[in-house]
Amino acid sequence: MRKLFTIIIIFTLSILSLGKEYKRIASGSPAVSEILYELGLKDNIIAMDKNSDVKGLENIPKVSFYNISMEEMLGLKADLVIFSTFNKAEKNSFVTLMEKNGTDVIYLPDITSIEDIYTSIRVIGEQTERVPEGEKIIAKIKEDIKNITDKSEKIEKRKKVYFEISPYPNMYTFGKGVFMNEMLEKAGVENIFKDQKGWFIPILEAIAVKNPDLIFTSTYQLDNPIKELEQRENWRIIKAIKEKKIYHIEKEVVRPSVKVAEMIREIFEISYPELKDWQKTKKAPLRVRAFLVEIKCNSRKCLMTTLL
User: Fold this and answer.
1) What stretches in the chain show pLDDT beneath 50?
2) Residue 210 and residue 198: Cα distance in Å, rounded?
3) Per-residue confidence (pLDDT) for residue 46, from 0 to 100
């Protein structure tokens, strides 16, 4: 009887520790929206921040999560709101007010590493009863990253990279303590500002001294960010500018979300095209396929000649 009672108590506590099924979720960032989508919760999202542009969620209403209006948040009648340090809201007062009105809140702290991305996926997955789905997503990301690092870790001479996320004059870049710095490391390149910390605006002299081999930009405020970089006065002294090694990366790269492995692969393949495994692509470039056919035919002809 005592054993049965113990089992019932443990089972009850386990039930209480599980998440719950939310029908009305409000997403406070593009990264959160992407995580919710991959967890299979797209039909449960009733609002998301104005910067969310996830394919498949185009018809979801958008509100400002940057300067949060408490009246607007309450008007959503969400049963779960997910926000982070990106959103300008006083954490404790926001959480207290929302929960007082029957809305649960998930607060995600700063994302400084890829491991923090996994934590965000787990937290959201546990709260929304999507634990297996979350672990599956994490396992896939880890597998994809390992496929890249198996190659990138063997690179002896890493290319130096300057990464810019916004245009002149507020041309923000980053150093250590930012998850994007770890992404560059995984991709086999060296951030020229890896000795710096956090986000900052560099000066031209500092970039020129570091003399990067490549420049990446995720700027989306301009129609042609590469051209804008090329035309900057006095920037032509930089190796990447002179050699036209400037590449635009989609803005998703700055999101700490489920697409982190895709972004790492893109940076790796742009930086080291000679190491790109084209055989895994759906269709090899025409000149490569023609070359293979020619070699195959030559090999066959030689073999026939030998047999005769």
Assistant:
1) 1-18, 278-308
2) 18
3) 93
